[in-house]
Amino acid sequence: MDFMFFLNAIAFGVGLAMDAFSVSMANGLNEPAMGKRKMLGISATFTFFQFLMPLIGYFCVHTIANLFESFQKFIPWIALILLCFIGGKMLAEGIKNKNGDEEKPAVGFAALMIQGVATSIDALSVGFTIAQLSWAEAIVEALIIGAVTFIICTCGVYIGKKFGTHLAGKASIFGGAILIFIGIEIFISGIMG
After folding, report:
1. Which percentage of the chain shows pLDDT scores above 70?
2. What angle do CA 41, 45, 48 make, to 5 degrees?
3. Which of 11-25, 43-57, 92-106 has the lowest mean pLDDT?
4. Is the CB of residue 82 less than 8 Å from the CB of residue 183?
5. What is the mean pLDDT of residues 178-193?
6. Confidence band of 101 (pLDDT split at 50, 70, 90)
7. Who contacts 27 (Cβ-Cβ below 8 Å, separation ≥6)?
């Protein structure tokens, strides 16, 4: 583990956390009165999945690589469906309550788990790129990716909360549109690349 190992892990973390950052921001937009505990819970959820998925990919390469390769073509579809479902729900709630008079529902546990999976599913492929590492090095790499994700997502929720306060009733519409856009972006880049 040298300087380049750590630099590479941080770069992976930043790249993988961008979708989670946007979704975190959308969650903050949707719930501007969110408390610190929930903010940290959202960041921790994305961190957990961004940590876990590369390790699952690593494990698959070393055990059931052929099965995983056939599953990989479905990853863009899964992300598209999950994020469009959640984003569409947020969008519909925002349109129904344009003026912001009604209390917006908080992001629930189930929705947060779906967001975590949907935004980190592309991190499974990182397991292929780190397949040459030892198990201990793969864990360190995943820990660094997780730490970077935590910092980025915490910033995302905070930024979303600040803008959500200013956008009032339009925040849910904007947040839902962000989720749908991310789902489409993951789908297109997965199909093209």
Report:
1. 82
2. 130
3. 92-106
4. yes
5. 75
6. very low
7. 34, 42, 107, 112, 115, 157, 160, 175
Which residue has 């190992």 as its token pair? Answer: 5
Prediction pTM value = 0.71
Q: Looking at residues 43-53, what average pLDDT do you find?
A: 94
Q: Which amino acid would we find at residue 132?
A: Q
| Angle subtended by helix axes 171-192 and 135-167, to nearest 10 | 140
How far is it, in rounded angstroms, from Cα 93 to Cα 84? 14
CA distance 12 to 51: 11
Tens-digit pLDDT profile for residues 117-134: 888 877 777 777 777 788
Judge contact between 87 and 22, C-beta under 8 A. no
Q: CA triplet 82, 44, 121: central angle to 5 degrees?
A: 35
Contact by Cβ (8 Å): 14, 152: yes
pLDDT (0 to 100) of residue 1? 77
Calculate the CA 5 to chain-centre distance: 23
Query: Cα separation of 91 and 93, whole Å?
Result: 5
Task: Give the pLDDT of residue 8.
Answer: 83
Name the 3-class secondary structure at 98.
Answer: coil
As a whole number of angstroms, the distance between CA 166 and CA 162 comes to: 7
Q: Which of 24, 177, 159 is nearest to 94 (CA)?
A: 177
- Please check whether residue 151 is in contact with residue 58, taking contact to mean a CB–CB distance below 8 angstroms: no
